[in-house]
């Protein structure tokens, strides 16, 4: 479903984020991505979403070469993806519910249907009772669960979550991970980057990155 073929990414002469990375992730898999800060984890996710393009090599999603996608095809790719990336904060001047409705409204869903689906998504991550809250009234873990609801409201085939449990205490981190695992259990392919040793120790598959290179788990 996701395949990297000898992918390298060089932002500048000094900044080489990925070096000759080859890996594949099958449909329905749950894969964790581990590695120190700067190892290239965020870059790897951004290439799957066509936010960044490989310098050399190929990234395939469902057999389609992401590097060759024209501008018009990118929104169709993104609809297959539920992105929980570090720089995508919730809009603080809108309610939780409005944040979740937004991805539906921009793709043309009628308001009533958008609200129903947004409420269903919030229910799935255990946040329906906070639908009318403002994002900044929520704890970090609650905000992450809302971000998950926003990512899955369009029913993506793949979820990419970049350090969704960073800065969370154990109990909040477990709730966030449980929400992600529940989507994987119903067939959504998930890639989650984390530094959480406890989670990595019990994971069935971990891809390790170090200085942009694979250090295990790619097969
Ligand atoms: N837009 C950019 N321009 C230049 N260099 C970049 C850019 N984005 C990332 N880099 C560099 O590429 C390398 C990999 O960064 P990346 O953010 O992918 O790592 P990461 O493993 O996600 O780190 P972290 O755990 O801190 O989020 C780093 O050396 C970083 O400084």
Automatic annotation (TrEMBL):
Keywords, alphabetical: Amino-acid transport, ATP-binding, Cell membrane, Membrane, Nucleotide-binding, Translocase, Transport
Q: Which GO terms describe its molecular function?
A: ATP binding; ATP hydrolysis activity; transmembrane transporter activity
Q: Where's the ABC transporter domain?
A: 2-219
Gene3D superfamilies in the record: P-loop containing nucleotide triphosphate hydrolases
Q: Which PROSITE patterns match?
A: ABC_TRANSPORTER_1, ABC_TRANSPORTER_2
Pfam families, sorted = ABC_tran (PF00005)
Q: Give the transmembrane region(s).
A: none
**One BP term from GO:** amino acid transport
One GO cellular component term:
plasma membrane
Q: Which family does it belong to?
A: Belongs to the ABC transporter superfamily.
Q: What does this protein do?
A: Part of the ABC transporter FtsEX involved in cellular division. Important for assembly or stability of the septal ring.
Put simply, this protein is called Cell division ATP-binding protein FtsE
Q: What organism is listed for this UniProt entry?
A: Massilia cavernae
């Amino acid at each position: 479903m996701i395949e990297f073929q000898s992918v390298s990414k060089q932002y500048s002469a000094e900044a080489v984020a990925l070096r000759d990375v080859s890996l594949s992730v099958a449909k329905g898999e749950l894969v964790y991505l581990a590695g120190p800060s700067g190892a290239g984890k965020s870059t790897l996710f951004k290439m799957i979403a066509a936010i960044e393009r490989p310098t050399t090599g190929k990234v395939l999603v469902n057999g389609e070469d992401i590097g060759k996608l024209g501008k018009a095809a990118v929104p169709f790719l993104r609809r297959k993806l539920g992105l929980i990336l570090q720089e995508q904060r919730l809009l603080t001047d809108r309610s939780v519910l409005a944040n979740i409705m937004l991805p539906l409204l921009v793709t043309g869903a009628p308001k009533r249907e958008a609200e129903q689906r947004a409420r269903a998504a919030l229910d799935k991550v255990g946040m329906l009772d906070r639908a009318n809250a403002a994002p900044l009234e929520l704890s970090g873990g609650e905000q992450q669960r809302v971000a998950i609801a926003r990512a899955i409201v369009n029913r993506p085939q793949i979820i990419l979550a970049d350090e969704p449990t960073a800065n969370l205490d154990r109990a909040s981190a477990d709730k966030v991970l449980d929400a992600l695992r529940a989507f994987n259990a119903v067939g959504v392919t998930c890639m989650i980057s984390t530094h959480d040793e406890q989670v990595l120790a019990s994971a069935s598959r971990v891809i390790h990155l170090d200085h942009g290179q694979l250090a295990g788990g790619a097969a």
